[in-house]
Amino acid sequence: MNHDSHAGHAAHDAVDGTHDKHAGHSVAMFRDKFWTSLLLTLPTLIWGHMLQTALGYTAPSFPGARWIPAVFGTAVFIYGGRPFLEGALREIRDRLPGMMTLIALAITVAFGFSAAVLLGFPGMPLWEELATLVTIMLLGHWLEMRSISQAQGALGELAKLLPSTAVRVHGEGTDEHVEDVPVSELRDGDVVLVRPGASVPADGVVRSGQSSVDEALITGESASVEKREGAQVIAGTINGAGSLRVLVTRTGDKTALAGIMRLVEQAQSSRSRAQILADRAAFWLTWVALGAGAATLVVWLSIGASPATAIERLVTVLVIACPHALGLAVPLVLAISTTLGARSGLLVRDRRGLEDARNLTTVVFDKTGTLTLGEHRVVAMNVTGGLSEDAALRLAAAVERDAEHPVARAIVKSAEERGLSVPSTDTFKAIPGRGVSATVEGRELSVGGPNLLVSLSVTPASALQHFAEEAAARGQGVIYLVEGTNALAAFAVADAVRPESAEAVRRLHDAGIEVVMMTGDARAVADAVARELGIDVVLAQVLPEDKAANIERIQKEGKRVAMVGDGVNDAPALVTADVGIAIGAGTSVAVEAGDIVLVRSDPRDVSRIITLSRATYRKMVQNLWWAAGYNIVAIPLAAGVLAPIGVVLSPAVGAVLMSLSTIIVAINAQLLRRVKL
Predict the structure, then answer these.
(1) Which of 138, 207, 341, 597 is most exposed by smallest CB count within 10 Å?
(2) Which residue has better confidence, 611 or 339?
(3) Exactly one of 190, 366, 521, 566 is catalytic; which is it?
(4) What is the pLDDT of residue 245?
């Protein structure tokens, strides 16, 4: 039988994460066992030899008192040591000896030797060391599991967002009545009433009502979002002061919240390269510890030490070499970073994507829907005749309000976003191929493109003509507001740049990262957006099927590339890039192509990903150095290399140092929460 192949197979399994040292364990179980074991350990210490010798006192004597350390020590071994013994059996059965094996071996050797001394074998029993060791190990595991549980609390927090019941609405007007039903009974097409302060029970569209909704725990956006008829709402968000009637469009596993929970769960179970390295190191450290323990026992016996001394050195080596801190160093940091991301609207689908983000040199943005809104707006205007821009836009929006053309929608939406009150109109009339006209506040107005000017024999002022020429050079459409034979204003209409995009580019430049924009739009349109945002490189008129090839070309220049896109036509490029960042747009978070999903569709979040990645890596490196360095120093000390000068570590001290190392790693990982994204 080839032992090397078995070792390699076991290491591979360890790396693949097929073994869980805490399977079937809980925070409460370790907490309860710790406190009970501590109570059982106190009599063991009081009537044991170690504390009496150290403090120079004599414990109360009565018949059977000498059996107290043995009885209570055995109780601690059986009750408190059970999780470690069971864990060791699983590790041995899976051929993955690890920290549970080391702890179980240490306490079993201590128990067996102490029992032998009780039966007449020469030496000093180790009941106090055994009880103290088990108790401290229980404390360490309790703290570890509590830290991990807190770090992975995002799923629990998200699950709590959904209410258990909903108010379903039947009928309309005077025939309307409501009933409370379990959320599980809701179906697409139902109408639900969301009262002030209540949670939205399912994804849907506002049918009537107006309110502000707190979406912070879903999107990471702190400001409440105004919702009125036609607006989308997300399950789990909190309604404000108004009431809403919502038409249900997605329930149960189809909701955005369920999609977020799946992504968080997937990220928590995915494994990074650093974690694989730590797992491999922990696996081999176990074998080093076993070898060091055996060598320690042989050396001490060979130089004439008593069996008690040799076994005490063996137990100390096994305890202090336990790769507890090493096993916790990376998983805890990653769990915390994934949770931080989820709370900030950054959903990590694959931890390797988050890990690679720290090395990025280039970020490639798709334009439409990423740097821009993906919807047309009035992006510039020029007015004459003493009108203000707001007055001109208000009148144009009134004329266009009843029109269905996308440009009409752009003008109306732009007026609404400026908070303008759009007046009502009379005698609305469409002029095929030219525009629309209407009477607004007693004024006969028309809105349309260049064809409208020709049909009405209107010659715009030179300022308007110059404005139109500049807009056309940028690839923008121009619409005119006309009264009689006078052109009052010209509006440049285009896919509007997101308000956050300029800051997103600036933040990336501040981080030393090149910004590239890749789009299928014409060169003039792309260059106009690039100039406005300060983008370094523009790739225009790129077909969807060629986007991945462009990513590969940039990578061949030695650059580490992130692709930011909407996850639909950008999917091949997202997969090809070193890090794929998909725009989630709130209600469609289950984007399958990217490593990371931006729930808020905010391009500024790209720099936050890089900040989180770099901070996560720093914490992982710090923890790995501490855990590895601790073992490099501690194992020789435990073996007794400094015994000639009087420095000897007892098993109890070894357990304290090992637990202290684990606690330091856990605390350092928790400091990641202080990073400002």
Answers:
(1) 207
(2) 611
(3) 366
(4) 93
